[in-house]
Sequence to fold (374 residues):
Amino acid sequence: MTDFLTATARGADEVLLGFATALRAAGVPVTQDRTRAYLEAVALVGIGDRAATRSAGRATLCATPEDLERHDRIFEEWFHRDISTPVSRPRATQSRASAVLLPDDQDAGAGGPDQDDDPVRAAASIAEVLRHRDVATLEPAERARLAAMFAGLHVRLPTRPTARRTPHRRGDVDASRTLRASLRRMGEPAEIHRRRRTTRPRRVVLLVDVSGSMSGYADALLRLAHRVVNAGPGVEVFSLGTRLTHLTRALKLRDPDRAIAAAGDVVPDWSGGTRLGETLRAFVDRHGRRGMARGAVVVIFSDGWERGDTGLLAEQVDRLHRLAHKVVWVNPHRGKDGYVPVQQGIVAVLPHVDAFLAGHSLATFDALLEEVGR
Fold:
């Protein structure tokens, strides 16, 4: 069987970028971050392997089952054309990536010359496995790989209708414009003009528990918050622990690692105790009632372990629920086998939240973003 694509002077990135553009034209929301992740993934698996290149596109460019179907169709059309491109990047790059992605007992070259390419071809599959792994159980090398995969998350911020109406080809009849058009024609029938309400971004507030019981998830949750903050306007982030800390400014840094480091410098109670009721009361009193939470989508990331009064916690979540458009509680233990919401804090807040979701893996973060944007 011949190679998937043969070497010529035409650049590999040019062909891959053309494929990403064709996929976007077909209706798949391919962002610049996803395109960058796709190029990096293909560099790891090698563009000379057709099946691995296809898997890399499915893992980095697609977010829904419909996207996968479109991807496969465009992939067959695009790469079956009479084009050619250089094969994969130098072996040194692939070997270095394989050493990061695989356990120590699967180093490059351990299986002999015939098996030297197997780890590279498996890179896309490893990425898919990492999407469903509990982030608190990952090894340092796996955490580094997962951190790079956050760029592939699709963030669609929610919108809300406004009172203002603008001309549109569909919608309610605009009586004033229709009447003026008729008068300009001396009373003769004229085109019926229509209008509809415009929309504007709805505010999103993320409250992240950084107490000791959430320490295994704090880094991933702040990376998720950084992704949402930089996706558009109207996003605010606070940390919850023994006190309330505003993190939006720190997380606005474009580089994720620098943003996480800046947030860590700001938070004074990292991996400390938990006073959810008191910190939520501080948020509602200082920010929520003044407009930040009014009509917003509020997401609380916490396992529900509360040192203080759970009655106070329930009262503050109820206050928040009356102010906000939607309150979503995300518990990293929610998606684990055998989990039952028996913590007193969780039992107290469940009657006052609109959704109770899992939040322990990249796949659950994707589901959360769909819920927030819905």
